[in-house]
Each structure stands twice: as structure tokens, then as C-alpha cells.
């Protein structure tokens, strides 16, 4: 059954129940739609696309901030049999143009935040249509989303969809600097629904708070666990500890997926006295899970101090595996905090050496995964595809080790390893240690070129507000680490992270090492 059928079934079973809520604290607005309105809007947009001659295999790009319209547009594209192409809202006009050309996009759906960038690329692409999600007086587009909703029928389009057909094209939003378009099938999307719901056991009564960007597989695929049971979700525009807790309290949210920096911000606000938990109704909030990066054990210990009744979970995933879930910690494995977990539901996992042979427990190797969410490949790039897909296994590029109980610990990105005098240094280990300091908010470790040793580890440290440390203080703190792992230099700066919470190390290398971090080559 295609994922679009899940939406249609929810519209039939729960027509008048709320499906999606959008909260925009900065604007002071709140909007919502029912399951029937969600499905009707998706059908209307699909019928518009078919009227415009869009057919199977055609690409429709989405350039929107998180909003109430995002998911109906996405599902409308799928219902029309086209490929949905979500775009990173941080992309510059040049990067957007490159993505549109690479994916051969025919229709671009965009919001008011992107008017200037779209104006720059207008006329430079082979786009057939521009669709604007906003009010007409703000821009000159070919079509307007709200006009489409008022003009096209809400019946389901007569388009047959099968599991092996392509559904979406996602540009990677990792930290290596060169986005590649990933082809996902309808079967991939359905598998994400099943895996997510199996892991977190969402029921129809749950309410999921969606904060990360919907263009990325992470947030959307976690929401899929609610979709499969017709449970509602809240889309939060903007991030702050107060806004998150207000949304949880006022909307009676039960499940929240947080990135590590947001969890740290909440705890810091509590400890500074800026947040009083007694001001909020939070008893119904039962699951807090994190992803997109290794989670420091010290953070979970702090979290459980203030939220002792919370179940905690983390998932590991990547866009090439249809988002999170190929490795899963499990709700009852709090004693294994620091691990990313065990193979997810329906997944196989191995840790291998450079020759693809499984390594023994405790030894570091590359993490490879196999399961129903593995991508079809990189779009029109068989060479890149063959490097990561081998005999059905996806080579993730992440280095990991497995303990005697089978739990997997992420060590670092293969590309981020610092080789100092022949010793392999894994930055994540040092970063986790640095974050355990009471004055340090965030940390990143990169390799600085060195004539004698090849590279030396240096730390970029972001302090908590109002705290002070010197380079000597940090180096002294690191004396507890093995000598070869100690940072040789310390720089104080803000740690840049992408919208999914991953440290943007190419930017740090460019700033502190003089190495180019161009997005496109």
C-alpha cells in the first residue's frame, strides 16, 4: 500500500479530527487542518499538476519553511506520480539553481521567504511553472497555491503507484559539503512508516512535535510513525526552550524529537532559572528522543534529572537509508546511553574493515546497513552509487564499534578522522569529553595541517553564556585524555550546525585551516 493510501484512509476514518497544527510563536499565530482537509488539499494539488501535464518521472521541487502547507504539497506531488524534490531552505540562489538543473525540475513550489532567491534564478532554468504559497501581492508567480485549492477538485487522481517506483529525490544535507541527489521509492517511504511505528509504538492518541526542517528525511520520517495510526502532529516554526515547552504544554504533545543543541538549550534555560517547569503541563510527554548526531551520555543524565519519567531513545540513520531507524537504541536500554543501538526493525547491520570483512566486537570499522529503506541510488550517478551500494549493503562512511552485547557505538565520520603521526584520532570521543565540562556548551575537533605529524587535533569550543575559559584551562581539562588525543590548540567560536544538528566541519576547516568548503564542485 503506498504511503498516499495511509493519508486517504485517515481522511476516511478520522475526517473531522485534527491532523496537523502549525504554531508560529514569533507571529503569534496558530493554524490547523483536519485529516479530510489534508487529503483534499493533497488531491487538489495533484489534480493541478496533472492538468499542467506533469507525469510519472517528472520532478516537482519544494522550497518552503516548515508550514501547514508543506506536507499537503508533498503528498500531492506523490499522488500525481511525480517525484517530490525537497530543497534545503539554507541554499543560496546559486545552490538552488544547481539543484533544479541537476534534478531537471519542472515545477517549483516556494514560499515568501525565498522570493529574492527565486527572482535571481527566474529565467535561468527550464522550469515550466512557479507556484507561490502566499499572497499574490508578494510576488509574481505562474500560479498561487490558495487559488489552486479553490479551483481544482478534491477527488483522488487516477494514478496507480507501486512500491518499486521512484517517489522522491533528496539532496544530502550532511557535512561533507557536496550534496548528492538520492532516489527514494514509494516502498522506501512505506518502510520508514513501519520501522518508526514499530520502534516507538505510536498510537492514535499520540501527538508528535515536529521542529526540524521537513525538507530533511529525519523529521518527516519520524512523523510517519504518527501517520500510520492517524495521530496528529504539531509543526513548530522557530526554536527556543520557551516555545518548545509552550507547544508541548498547550497542545498536549506526547513525543518530541530534539537535536542535541536544543536539548542543551532547554536544560541551560532551566538551570539559569529562565524556565520554571511548574508553569507547564508536561505530564503527558512520555518520549524524548534525539538523533542526527552522537548523543553525549552526560546530556541524558542531565535530562533525566529534570524529566525522570521520560522514555529516552535515539536512532541512527541517513538520507540514503530513508532517514532514521536502521539502527535503534530502544526505549528500555537507558543503560546503553552513548550507543546508537541495535539493528532497527527489518534491518541488518555489520561493521567491516577496508576489504568488507566483518570485524570482531570492540574493533573499529565502517558501519554498513541493509534493509527496505536503502535508496535506489544517486540520481544519474552510477559511479557514486557503486561506491556505497555493494550487494545490497549501504556503506555509510561512518566508523563504529560493537560491544559484547551487540550495541553499536558511532565513533566518527570516516572523512573526519584526524591522523596525527600515524595515530587515528576520532573527534567525537574528544568532543563528548569537552562537552562534559560545566562551562562548555558545544565543541568540535578538526585536524590542523602539520608539517611534521601530518595533522594535529585542534578544538573549537563554544562556551555557555556568561562563562569564561582560557585556552590553557581547556588544555588542562584535557589532561585526563590519552596524550595523543589531547587538542594541541583551542579556539573559541560558535559551532556551526546544519538544520539537522550536524556540525558543519567544512566551514570550520575553511575558517581555521584555510581549506575550501565549497558546496558544489
Please explain how this structure is put together.
This protein is an alpha/beta fold. A hairpin with a 3-residue loop joins β25 (440-450) and β26. α2 (35-51) packs across α3 (70-79), α4 (93-103) crosses α5 (115-121) and α10 (260-271) packs across α11. The protein has a 9-stranded mixed β-sheet, sandwiched between helices. Among the domains are: 3-197, ANL, N-terminal domain (Rossmann fold); 418-513, GMP Synthetase, Chain A, domain 3, CATH 3.30.300. It has 15 helices and 27 strands.
Q: Give the number of DSSP strands.
A: 27
**Roughly how much helix do the residues carry, as a percent range?**
25-40%
In CATH, what is the class of the domain at 3-197? Alpha Beta
The named CATH superfamily of the domain at 3-197: ANL, N-terminal domain
The total of helices stands at 15
Largest sheet: 9 strands, mixed
Radius of gyration: 23 Å
- Architecture of the domain at 3-197, CATH level 2? 3-Layer(aba) Sandwich
* Unreliable residue runs: 516-521
Q: What do we call the CATH topology of the domain at 3-197?
A: Rossmann fold
Helix and strand composition category: alpha/beta
Query: Quaternary status of these chains?
Result: single chain
Kindly report how far apart the N and C termini lie.
Answer: 40 Å
Mean pLDDT: 90
Main β-sheet, spatial strand arrangement: 2-1-11-10-12-13-14-15-16
Q: What does the overall shape look like? A: globular
Measured by DSSP, the beta-strand proportion falls in: 25-35%
Amino acid at each position: 500500500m503506498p504511503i498516499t493510501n495511509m493519508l486517504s484512509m485517515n481522511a476516511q476514518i478520522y475526517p473531522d479530527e485534527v491532523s496537523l497544527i502549525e504554531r508560529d510563536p514569533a507571529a503569534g499565530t496558530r493554524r490547523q487542518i483536519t485529516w479530510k482537509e489534508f487529503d483534499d488539499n493533497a488531491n487538489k494539488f495533484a489534480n493541478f499538476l496533472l492538468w499542467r501535464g506533469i507525469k510519472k518521472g517528472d520532478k516537482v521541487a519544494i522550497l518552503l519553511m516548515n508550514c501547514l502547507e508543506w506536507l499537503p504539497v508533498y503528498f500531492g506531488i506523490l499522488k500525481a506520480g511525480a517525484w517530490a524534490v525537497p530543497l534545503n531552505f539554507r541554499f543560496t540562489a546559486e545552490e538552488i539553481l544547481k539543484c533544479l538543473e541537476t534534478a531537471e525540475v519542472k515545477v517549483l513550489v516556494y514560499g515568501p521567504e525565498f522570493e529574492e532567491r527565486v527572482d535571481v534564478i527566474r529565467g535561468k532554468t527550464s522550469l515550466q511553472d512557479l507556484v507561490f504559497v502566499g499572497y499574490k501581492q508578494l510576488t509574481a508567480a505562474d500560479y498561487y497555491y490558495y487559488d489552486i485549492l479553490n479551483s481544482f477538485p478534491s477527488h483522488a487522481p487516477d494514478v496507480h503507484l507501486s512500491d518499486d517506483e521512484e517517489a522522491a529525490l533528496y539532496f544530502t544535507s550532511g557535512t561533507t559539503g557536496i550534496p548528492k541527489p538520492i532516489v527514494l521509492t514509494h516502498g522506501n517511504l512505506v518502510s520508514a512508516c513501519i520501522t518508526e511505528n514499530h520502534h516507538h509504538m505510536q498510537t492514535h492518541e499520540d501527538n508528535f512535535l515536529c521542529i526540524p526542517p521537513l525538507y530533511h528525511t529525519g523529521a518527516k520520517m519520524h512523523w510517519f510513525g504518527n501517520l500510520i495510526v492517524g495521530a496528529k502532529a504539531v509543526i513548530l516554526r522557530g526554536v527556543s526552550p520557551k516555545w518548545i515547552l509552550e507547544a508541548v504544554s498547550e497542545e498536549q504533545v506526547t513525543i518530541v524529537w530534539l537535536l542535541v543543541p536544543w536539548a542543551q538549550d532547554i536544560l541551560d534555560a532551566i538551570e539559569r532559572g529562565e524556565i520554571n517547569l511548574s508553569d507547564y503541563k508536561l505530564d503527558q510527554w512520555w518520549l524524548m528522543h534525539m538523533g542526527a548526531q552522537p548523543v553525549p551520555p552526560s546530556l541524558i543524565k542531565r535530562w533525566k534529572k529534570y524529566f525522570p519519567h521520560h522514555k529516552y531513545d535515539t536512532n541512527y540513520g541517513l538520507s540514503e537509508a530513508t532517514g532514521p531507524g536502521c539502527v535503534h537504541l530502544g526505549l528500555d536500554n537507558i543503560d546503553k546511553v552513548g550507543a546508537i543501538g541495535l539493528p532497527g526493525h527489518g534491518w541488518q547491520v555489520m561493521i567491516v574493515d577496508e576489504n568488507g570483512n566483518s570485524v570482531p566486537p570492540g574493533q573499529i570499522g565502517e558501519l554498513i546497513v541493509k534493509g527496505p529503506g536503502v535508496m535506489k541510488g544517486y540520481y544519474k550517478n552510477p559511479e557514486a552509487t557503486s561506491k556505497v551500494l555493494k550487494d545490497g549493503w549501504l556503506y555509510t562512511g561512518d566508523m563504529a564499534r560493537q560491544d559484547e552485547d551487540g550495541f553499536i557505538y558511532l565513533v566518527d565520520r570516516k572523512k573526519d578522522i584526524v591522523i596525527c603521526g600515524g595515530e587515528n584520532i576520532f573527534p567525537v570521543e574528544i568532543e563528548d569529553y569537552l562537552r562534559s565540562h560545566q562551562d562548555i556548551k558545544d565543541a568540535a575537533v578538526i585536524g590542523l595541517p602539520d608539517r611534521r605529524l601530518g595533522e594535529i587535533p585542534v578544538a573549537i569550543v563554544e562556551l555557555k553564556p556568561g562563562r569564561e575559559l582560557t585556552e590553557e584551562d581547556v588544555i588542562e581539562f584535557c589532561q585526563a585524555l590519552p596524550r595523543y588525543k589531547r587538542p594541541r590548540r583551542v579556539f573559541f567560536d560558535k559551532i556551526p550546525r546544519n538544520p539537522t544538528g550536524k556540525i558543519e566541519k567544512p566551514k570550520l576547516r575553511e575558517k581555521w585551516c584555510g581549506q575550501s568548503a565549497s558546496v558544489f564542485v
